[in-house]
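PROTEIN DESIGN WORKSHEET
SECTION A - STRUCTURE
LENGTH: 172
TOKENS:
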């Protein structure tokens, strides 16, 4: 996939905001009956190009959320944000989840559903058109969205690879 350009970022230096995407009650059937626990999916970001997601599991909701936040802070990535939107259209896939991201003009807002919206807003993307296809499983939709964001390239990076000026990249 697009795992080549992952830059690990230290969470201690950033002011991150957390969003709980999903809280799921899970049960383990034992000899003595059912034992309940909680599985939580959390997205963190500084709303300025850095985002991460995590999964926390525990018997108590608050403990699961804090575990999810700790996991999310270990999986932070840098996302190219250009004037509040993404630089170019991009598709992402994880399992049965497929996502389509398209840049939008200023004032459009984040047009995306549930789990995708949390990731895009946490990354600081204010104007984007997004569609989720396939499964609606929040874990897989978040991972597909992260894969799409990882595949995005900066315009300056494209100009350097092509050996042309930045102006030529935008004008064709």
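SECTION B - SEQUENCE
RESIDUE ASSIGNMENT:
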């Amino acid at each position: 996939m697009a795992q080549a350009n992952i830059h690990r970022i230290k969470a201690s230096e950033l002011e991150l905001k957390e969003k709980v995407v999903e809280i799921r009650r899970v049960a383990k059937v034992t000899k003595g009956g059912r034992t309940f626990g909680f599985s939580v999916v959390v997205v963190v970001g500084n709303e300025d190009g850095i985002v991460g997601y995590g999964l926390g599991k525990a018997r108590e909701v608050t403990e699961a959320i804090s575990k999810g936040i700790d996991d999310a802070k270990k999986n932070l990535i840098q996302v190219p944000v250009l004037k509040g939107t993404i630089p170019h259209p991009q598709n992402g896939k994880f399992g049965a989840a497929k996502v389509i991201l398209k840049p939008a003009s200023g004032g459009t807002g984040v047009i995306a559903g549930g789990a995708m919206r949390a990731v895009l807003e946490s990354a600081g993307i204010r104007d984007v058109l997004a569609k989720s296809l396939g499964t609606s499983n929040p874990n897989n939709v978040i991972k597909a969205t992260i894969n799409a964001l990882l595949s995005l390239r900066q315009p300056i990076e494209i100009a350097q690879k092509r050996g042309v000026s930045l102006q030529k990249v935008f004008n064709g």
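SECTION C - NOTES
The chain has five helices and eight strands.
The helical segments are 61-74, 114-123, 138-151, 155-162, 166-171.
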